[in-house]
Amino acid sequence: MAELAASRLSSADVSSSSADVSSREARKLEQQALRLAAEAARELQRKLKAALREPSPERSADARALLEAHPEETAKLRASAAKAARVKEQQEANATEVEEDEATLRVKIAALADMLREAKHAVVYTGAGMSTAAAIPDYRGPQGLWTLHNKKGGGSSSAAGGARNAPCAARAVMGQSFAETRPTIGHLALAALVRKGLIKQVISQNVDGLHLRSGVPPSKLCELHGNVFRERCPSCGKEYVRPFDVTGKSSFHRHGTERACERKVCNRAELRDTIVYFGESIAPADLSTAMEHSERCDLAIFLGSSLKVLQHYKFIWQLPPKPQRKRMVIVNLQPTPKDHAAELRLHGRCDTVLEQLLVSLGMPYLPYQPAKDEVLKRQVEPARGSELMRSKAEREAADAREEAEAAASEASLDEAGQGPPTASAAEAAVKGIDCGGTPG
Ligand SMILES: [Zn+2]
């Protein structure tokens, strides 16, 4: 009885193990067949693409026969080639700068002057195009950092290479330091409009500090992506404006400037630069200022921005219902994704438009005064902010701490639904700073 049972058991074992073997083999064969089919499909795609590359009048009989034998695949390939061509055309159109003739601009600038007089809370948003006249490169113009990066085969304007470190990339192209640049006529005209009360707030993506240097009062200025001359204490929040660029050692999630806060209670906390790189969050204080003014704003004027980054800041575009709906004006040489929403669209240089706007409003133009330059005037003050000496281990520990804090603050901003756009949002890549700037 026991023997019979054992023999049954063993034959059952044998049959189950042979079933295992055959199902394993079947799976293997199936996988092999799938692999061969995928290879054959790839080979067919390669041949079809080669056939399509032949100009149709000269296409060989073999190539024609191949395309006719696979009508579905051929149609798909034609459609995707057409889409790629449209995208390329759009990119080229976006990089093309159009300047309207003087007479057209004059009429539009007069209309803008009327809109400013009527507005209760006009807010100006500026991008890199505001500072190109100061020889600071923009991002998407014909000579922009990203345009050149893409031409060199850099692919998307992603955080790759120098594009991530915008102040650094800008400095390399400028061939001069940020401290050596000067505010342009446009910056000075804008500062005059702010002092006159016609513009209530300037919200800038530029990190070049030129709005501050041209005389826009700090309380009327919100530098969304920081300022190369500003550093901040992470402990008490005190800000220091320096007569030099504080971002020499700065990079993504590495903002320590190796200078210490002067306040005793901060126990020599290391100051940090204020730059916001692609993928980092806007400082909470700057974000809340920008949100508050964007909400109160009844006239939004966008100057020198492609809006590629700004279009992702929801707080700008969440419009109140009519009749409080804000009016929008866009001044930019290249097309922007929000052109359709603008009541007035000016294809002109920021300097030209702002200078003529002052004339139109009957306001005097005040030339640049180095003695009143918020950055330069500090060069004659005694040096402040003691230098911190750090070992490599201390440096690494400080960087790790900063990275952990950034991750925590980004998580809390995401919860609030105000996380800044990522590079990918902007252009299948990066979140941007307009380095007078960083991208925008
Ligand atoms: Zn402090």
UniProtKB/TrEMBL annotation:
The entry's keywords: Coiled coil, Metal-binding, NAD, Phosphoprotein, Transferase, Zinc
Superkingdom to which the source organism belongs: Eukaryota
Biased composition (Low complexity): 1-21, 406-416
Classification via SUPFAM superfamilies: DHS-like NAD/FAD-binding domain
Coiled-coil stretches: 81-108
Bilayer-crossing regions: none
Compositionally biased intervals (Basic and acidic residues): 387-404
Sequence segments annotated as region (Disordered): 1-28, 380-440
Binding site for Zn(2+): 233, 236, 261, 266
InterPro entries reported in the protein's UniProt record: DHS-like_NAD/FAD-binding_dom, NAD-dep_sirtuin_deacylases, Sirtuin, Ssirtuin_cat_dom
Ribosomal protein recorded as keyword: no
Record has Coiled coil as a keyword: yes
Cofactor(s) named in the record: Zn(2+)
Cellular component GO terms, alphabetical: nucleus
Single GO MF annotation: histone deacetylase activity, NAD-dependent
Active site per the UniProt annotation: 225
Domain Deacetylase sirtuin-type as annotated: residue spans: 102-369
Family, per entry: Belongs to the sirtuin family. Class IV subfamily.
Protein name: Regulatory protein SIR2 homolog 7
Source organism (scientific name): Chrysochromulina tobinii
